[in-house]
Amino acid sequence: MMITFALLSLSSLIYSSITHLFLHFFWKYLEKWGIKKVPFDRRITQTGPTNSIWFRGGPSLWRVYRRRDSLCTPGARSCSTQLHLQAMKGFLNRVSGGGDKDANKGAVEDKPADAAAVRTTSRRKSAFASTVKVPVVKELPLLQETPMLKREALFRQKLQLCNVIFDFEDPDIDVAGKEQKRETLVELAEYINSPVGQKILTESMMPDIVETVRVNLFRALPPQTADYDPEEDEPAMELTWPHMQVVYELFLRFIVSTEVSGKVTKKFVDQTFLRSWIELFDAEDPRERDYVKTVLHRMYGKFMSHRSFIRKAISQVFFRYIYETGQHNGIGELLEILGSIINGFAIPLKKEHLQFLEKALIPLHKPKGVTTYHPQLSYCISQYVEKDPDTIVVIVKGLIRYWPWSSAAKQVSYLSELEEIMELCRPDQLSLIQNDFAALLASCLDSSHFQVAERSLYYWNSEHLCVNVLSNARAPMLLPYVYGPLSRNANGHWNTTVESLAQSVLKMYMEMDINLYDKCNKEHLEKTRSKDAEREEAALKWQTIRALAEEKGIAARLD
To answer: What are 99-158's pLDDT values in tens digits?
Structure first.
């Protein structure tokens, strides 16, 4: 009896092992066709995976994964779909006993006639979490035509309907669904803008509105190409803008509504939401960046507890741009928001605000793309100077540190910014930076590029600078630095404007203090003679070296 029971147990174990091994190789064979088995009770939602095709076969759901074929590019959706359908039909024919012949026949019928007919694209586009093709649902009634007691449920239902993301890569797909979603979004935005509609913006409705914004706006932005130049190249417009614009308008009206309390809304518009929102500033479409800027400004004013976090998140964007990537599309828009934020800082400035100036704003003069946002940066710097004149010392030294000596166009822009700063400079701050400022001005006057020298000479046309920085009292300090460059520009500069401006400045100093002028002229002549003597001495030394080389027969090597 025991032997019989042992033999039965052994045979059962061997049978289960063979069955398991058979099923293992069977599923391996099916996976070659891109087919996997999943539980029957798994739910399929509109926000589910979009890189697969689902169909029912027996007691299970079968999922055919869309595999990238070597003949199709990522943008060739029609070719890719047809290839997956071929795989699916081939598997069904094999299961039903149709054989390879029928499968090959179906494959021939579904194959595109010409590979050139497959639409390809190299355009950069945003990547949403999911893009699905959904059937057009039955139209819901309008909110204005619905009884008041049922409007809240209908409003929530319409928001959920708008969480479906459509694929705008092919304009001929889901045309009716796209238009239906746009009309629904427009209706929702117009409804909450009315006095009656604002009453629906209760705390229970806020999670649904925020979720709709998350689904429709937060996405992976396409990286910039290496050869993209924001000053010359046209930006890539967002294909889903017909929907996104209305979502932005809906959320803007939600934020500015008087019925929406900041203390209640901050539970749903949390730090994670704000961080994702600030990432949208890197969008290439300028229309979207303008909406993102407007809404963030409103949120900064509404959520008092989030203000510090917003400033830190913006500074992190600056740090990543300055020290890591060097590429970002929305630095100018962020600086526009900061301009109004800095204008509201309390006096005296906090240590946090001074660190932001020193570590984030001033280093923004360093990247090569500074010309795209320099006007906004200059405005932020001037706001700091107006709030606290003591920041001039840090700002001027920072400008000198990041001065773009290799770019004449940037130097002209920086000279304009420096002029605005120095016009607000007080005597006690000027005494700390006057030597650095005079040395910088002398170097710009001596620039080989005429526009830099011309912009430097225009400093003496500023009434504010002539009263304080370039006044008679500062002449004994300033003139010894600038006399040499002024003299060289006044004596035969090829550009007539530079020459005439330099002569006017020298004439002004001559009439102001002839003794100081003669002293600087004498020192300049002595320095010139000394440099000439040094050059002659160096030339004699080289002649001596060459003569010795010729004696030893190595002169040819020197040539």
So the answer is: 444 434 333 334 333 433 333 334 456 666 554 444 445 578 888 888 888 889 999 999
d(CA 44, CA 56): 12
Give residue 397's Cα distance to chain centre.
28
Q: Give the C-alpha separation, 452 to 456, whole Å.
A: 6
DSSP codes, 56-105? EETTEEEEEE-PPPTTS-TT-HHHHHHHHHHHHHHHHHHHHT-HHHHHHH
d(CA 305, CA 326): 31
> What is the signed CA dihedral for 287, 289, 293, 296, rounded to 10 degrees?
120
Closest CA to 485 of 518, 457, 511: 457
Query: What pLDDT digit, counting tens, does each position of 239-276 carry?
Result: 899 999 999 999 999 999 988 888 899 889 999 999 99
Strand partners, 61: 38, 56
* Predicted pLDDT at 437: 94
Task: Report the phi/psi class of residue 403: left, alpha or beta, with left for phi > 0 and alpha for psi in -120 to 50.
Answer: beta
Helices assigned H by DSSP within 344-474: 351-356, 374-387, 391-401, 408-423, 427-445, 450-457, 463-467
Q: How many CB atoms lie within 10 A of CB 126?
A: 19
Do residues 455 and 494 touch, judged by C-beta distance below 8 A?
no
**Nearest 5 degrees, angle CA 312-CA 317-CA 323?**
115
Angle between helices 450-457 and 408-423 (to 10 degrees): 10
Q: Are 546 and 555 contacting, i.e. CB atoms less than 8 angstroms apart?
A: yes
Measured CA angle at 346 (ends 341, 349), to 5 deg: 95
Listed by start position, the domains of the chain span 25-117, 389-512
Cα distance between residue 278 and residue 257, in whole Å = 21
Enumerate residues 6+ apart whose C-beta is below 8 A from 493.
450, 453, 499, 502
Residue corresponding to tokens 């293992």: 24
- Whole-prediction pTM: 0.72
Residue written as tokens 């016009």?
423
What phi-psi label fits residue 540: left (phi over 0), alpha (psi between -120 and 50 degrees) or beta? alpha
pLDDT tens column, 362-421: 999 999 889 999 999 999 999 999 999 999 999 999 999 999 999 999 999 999 999 999
DSSP state of 119: -
Neighbouring residues of 477: CB distance < 8 A, sequence distance ≥ 6: 434, 435, 438
**What distance in Å separates the CA atoms of residue 396 and residue 357, rounded to the nearest whole number?**
12
Q: Report yes or no: 367 and 322 within 8 Å, Cβ to Cβ.
A: yes
How sure is the predictor about 468, in pLDDT bands with cuts at 50, 70 and 90?
confident
Residues 358 and 345: their CA atoms lie apart, in Å, by 16
Contact 349, 386 (CB under 8 A): no
